[in-house]
Amino acid sequence: MKLLIVEDEEKINNAISQGFREEGFDVSSAFDGEEARTIIERDEFDCVVLDLMLPHLDGITLLTRMREHKDNTPVIILTARDEVEDKVKGLNSGADDYLAKPFSFHELLSRVKAIIRRTSSNQTILQVDSLFLDPFKKTVTRAGVPIHITGKDFILLEYLMRNKGAAVSEDRIIRHLWDFEEEISSNVVASHIKNLRIKVDKAFPKEKPVIHTLRGLGYKLDG
User: Residue 216 class from Cβ within 10 Å (0-12 exposed, 13-18 middle, 19+ buried)?
Assistant: First the structure.
């Protein structure tokens, strides 16, 4: 699951981001409203955790623009403001939930998971041939046998399964798995694909391969 944390206080942003990464989320960070707007326009997220008091572009304006552009990505407003009128304004602007600072990370985590369950199909178990992936339980099985897959490999496998039958380019994979400012080579993508092939295809010789390389186009997962 892909999450964007929009918070201008670096320590808070880093702490929240690290917490969600430890829970298996693919996390991107933005430290001002304009940076967040750019990221949101170029990528898709399962949820956005959005502070209201941001440099350059405040949270309410950013949220309003998202909804005006028919972007229905779930948004949790996270802010030091705890006045009723601020909560109402945020919710009326299209926020799905509201959490005031100081807050418990575990409460934020539970709210993010609850919103994603309510507003998306991420709770649906993904299937390609005899390969099954549960996005919330973070489990993978093939032919009924559990497969241990974590980190970027799990995120990549989930992404390919959500795009079942479609060619996914290396550039799209890089944008999905890494923050846009990171310099990532195609060799890194190939390395993760190799790891998945070993665990998903080669470990099951009686099952037909599901991970395919499409020369010049990228990769495809199909039965």
Answer: exposed
Ramachandran angles phi, psi of 25, nearest 5°:
-80, 150
Structure confidence at residue 36 as a pLDDT band (50, 70, 90): very high
pLDDT confidence of 175, banded at 50, 70, 90?
confident
- Same domain for 164 and 194? yes
Q: Residue 24 is part of a domain; what is its CATH number? A: 3.40.50.2300
Do 181 and 92 share a structural domain?
Answer: no
Residues 114, 8: one domain?
Answer: yes
**What predicted TM-score, i.e. pTM, was given to this entire model?**
0.64
Q: What is the pLDDT at residue 219?
A: 95
Residue-number span of the structural domain to which 150 is assigned? 126-221
Q: Average pLDDT of the chain?
A: 88
> What is the distance of C-alpha 191 from the center of its chain?
21
Same domain (yes/no): 134, 208: yes
